[in-house]
Specification:
single chain, 222 residues, 4 helices
């Protein structure tokens, strides 16, 4: 009566397990990363929304353009980006004041100007779409908010600019629809996803994937 396996049988079994693992593991890893991207995006959207709600409640503002942050930029024509030069009031740089106000409501570890075009890759066959001259807000969990706001102190504009979220900072893949997502900022201080297509349409490049995820139950099935 046999009491065990031969060395050949063990090696064959291990070989089969290795082949199966090689076939299955890439898919499992890809699925895990997709879920991680989505979870981090949900958190980033929530953190932004909560910070803005606290800012507006503290300032007693019903609209974003009535906040101290927006008013501090009135001398900068309502712009908050990397290009806008600093205007001074009573010896205080208003752009620096705007930065300090944001730090009261968000756990920002660094604010940086990003000149030139971002190098984010498209998703699918669509054209590459970079954005330019942004304020980068670095968060403790590695998330970066790329911010370019315009007319923030003007109530006649329903939207106040763009906020791009890179959920894992400068780590790869740096790709639209995977770890990079685009939003517009409305006058309630909340983020609304870009209305572009996500994938599957001509010229789609992933810029509209935040909207797709929100409408798809936060499932990245593309």
């Amino acid at each position: 009566m046999r009491k065990g396996f031969t060395l050949a049988e063990v090696l064959i079994t291990l070989g089969i397990i290795g082949v199966v693992a090689a076939l299955v593991m890439p898919s499992l890893i890809a699925d895990y990363r997709k879920k991680e991207y989505v979870t981090r995006l949900q958190k980033a959207v929530s953190v932004w929304g909560n910070g803005m709600k606290l800012m507006m409640a503290t300032d007693g503002a019903d609209f974003f353009d009535d906040t101290d942050f927006a008013r501090s930029l009135s001398s900068n024509s309502g712009y908050y980006n990397a290009l806008e030069s600093c205007s001074y009031i009573d010896g205080t740089c208003m752009m620096d004041k705007a930065d300090s106000i944001l730090k009261k409501y968000f756990k920002i570890i660094k604010i940086e100007n990003k000149f030139g075009v971002t190098g984010w890759k498209p998703l699918g066959e669509g054209p590459s779409m970079g954005v330019m001259d942004l304020k980068l807000l670095y968060m403790p969990d590695g998330t970066i908010y790329y911010v370019s706001l315009t007319n923030v102190d003007n109530s006649s504009f329903a939207t106040k600019g763009d906020v791009f979220i890179d959920v894992n900072g400068k780590k790869p893949p740096n790709q639209w629809g995977r770890d990079v997502f685009g939003f517009v900022l409305n006058n309630r201080g909340q983020l609304e996803p870009f209305s572009y297509s996500c994938v599957g349409e001509e010229f789609s490049n992933g810029m509209g994937c935040a909207k797709y995820l929100m409408e798809n139950g936060w499932v990245m099935d593309y």
